[in-house]
Amino acid sequence: MADKPLPEITPGQFVEVRVDHSPSTYLRRPISINFVDDQKNELWLLIAMVGNGTRQLGKLKPSSQLNCLYPLGNGFTLPADSNEKMLLVGGGVGIAPLLHLGYEIKKRGGTPTFLLGARTREDLLELDQFNQLGRVFITTEDASLGEKGFVTNHSVLQKEKFSRIATCGPKPMMMSVARYAKANGITCEVSLENKMACGLGACLCCVEKTNEGNRCVCTDGPVLNINQLLWQI
């Protein structure tokens, strides 16, 4: 992307990537924007190689060209006050957009708190980068790093009070975080990971039922306030 400046990108937005040389993956793949380096004019993507499309992307070499549509969707709400205590909760590769969000919070004078969960320590990525931005708390299911269990079991949630939560990861994890936020009267936004195809709201395959009717996650999301959702929490 060195040929032209990056557009303004809000933490939580995503790209739709075309996977070339892979006949079975003719649809673009939605991938969260992990980080934006304005000085280097770089956009980072954190990819879990779980299918043929993402495995093909993982084979790309430096200087390879990538066909992307971006930035798509909406993003997280940034704190209006640098003193606002914000918790960023991520699970697995769902930590991806939280690095960019944490960077933007710090750039505005705030100090984000990260709560990151994974099955094992090998699944926790970019810890050095997260530690440079704020406080980092960790849970692993096998107790290989941090506290054992799930993110909503971490002791920091009992010891400290937060005014806002942003979360991204597996849906069961996000529902647990949303349940905690609702019970404690905390504003909470989630980044949904519904299956997408077009990224433009045309194919309707990513529709989420909300209290405002059906909404396309690719255009009305992926970030939504939990008060908009019909989750049974």
From TrEMBL:
Organism (species): Segatella salivae DSM 15606
Coiled coil: none
Top-rank taxon: Bacteria
Protein family according to the UniProt entry: Belongs to the PyrK family.
Claim: Translocase is one of the keywords in the record: no
Signal peptide location: none
Binding site for FAD: 29-32, 53-54
Cofactor note: Binds 1 [2Fe-2S] cluster per subunit.
Keywords: 2Fe-2S, Electron transport, FAD, Flavoprotein, Iron, Iron-sulfur, Metal-binding, Transport
Residues that hold [2Fe-2S] cluster according to the record: 198, 203, 206, 218
InterPro entries: Cyt_c3_hydrogenase_gsu, Dihydroorotate_DH_ele_sf, Dihydroorotate_DH_Fe-S-bd, FNR_nucleotide-bd, OxRdtase_FAD/NAD-bd, PyrK_electron_transfer, Riboflavin_synthase-like_b-brl
Annotated protein name in UniProt: Oxidoreductase NAD-binding domain protein
Residues of the Oxidoreductase FAD/NAD(P)-binding domain: 88-177
Gene3D superfamilies, sorted: Dihydroorotate dehydrogenase, electron transfer subunit (2.10.240.10), Nucleotide-binding domain of ferredoxin-NADP reductase (FNR) module (3.40.50.80), Translation factors (2.40.30.10)
Cross-referenced Pfam families: DHODB_Fe-S_bind, NAD_binding_1
One GO molecular-function entry: flavin adenine dinucleotide binding
Cofactor(s) the protein requires to work: [2Fe-2S] cluster; FAD
